[in-house]
Amino acid sequence: MQVDGVAYRTIWPARDGRAVEIIDQTRLPHSFETARLETVDDAAHAIRAMRVRGAPLIGATAAYGLWLALRADPSDAGLDAAAETLVATRPTAINLRWAVDAVVQDVRPRPRSERAEAAFAKAGAICDEDVAINRAIGDHGLHVFRRAYAAKTGDGPLNVLTHCNAGWLATVDWGTALAPIYMAHDAGIPVHVWVDETRPRNQGAALTSWELGRHGVPHKVVVDNTGGLLMQRGQVDLCITGTDRTTASGDVCNKIGTYLKALAARDNGVPFYVALPGPTIDWSLDDGGQIPIEQRDGREVTHLTGMTDRGRIETVRVTPPDSEAANYGFDVTPARLVTGLITERGVADASRDGLLGLYPDRARPAAE
Asked: Is the pTM of this model over 0.85?
């Protein structure tokens, strides 16, 4: 995507061949800065501190993290230690383990002298595949948006509500839930996006709004609890979110607050779509209740960081000093509340049969 006329991915190899560079998302929206990752510990910290975030992007970062690790220690012990370190950074998103496993399986059979180079190539392939997948998600989602706009009664734009950030900042490029929005906008469909702030880290207010503004997509930021009111008043034509892990039966784990939007959408007859790449499907799970839910530092709830009117970045406490906070990062939306899953292979019902219709290669072999 473009930032001030310059094409960027969210992660890329440094020109000197000794590191990878990222967009530091903790600095947005007030400052666009890049950072350099030179070691596996740098990569792990970037994931844990959410300098990079979004299921596809943390997977890509972990893949490059293994390359950085193998440059320093290409032994089996070094490979295993690096993989363990990276997988432990964020427990909910399945793409992280998927990417780590993909690199480990590729390099383990190789001589030590070839491992780092092979890991670098595999990480690059994972990034290129992610871009192609997200572009395809956008194409399939565009058909959904065309139908929704054609079915819309009355004047005005197609009003879309989204939650958290599932744009190009959450992937290597294009994004998942925002890819159809970009493509619809570019195709001339008038789109207006209601952007949930997404407390406590405010990925919607800080990142989604920044992305949409750079692309020229009309939008308004709303507090997280506004969605239900907007749906009651007929001001939302469809909802679309991303996901960090989707079960084989179609349950969707996404940023905390997604479940409440799905409930409001069902109560008001608003279609609720989820956009996801194939690697985000956890074929080993049928029940979303089995997905581990990340619990993060309570300080993310008790404190807010932003820019003052004088242009200074400051952090302030918004709760009493003696009040503790619970900070659950994700929730699970049952498949019954999901209208459709938009993938790189098409749009599926949120069910095992629906997903297997697009991914027949993942069908379990019949018992002999």
From this structure: yes
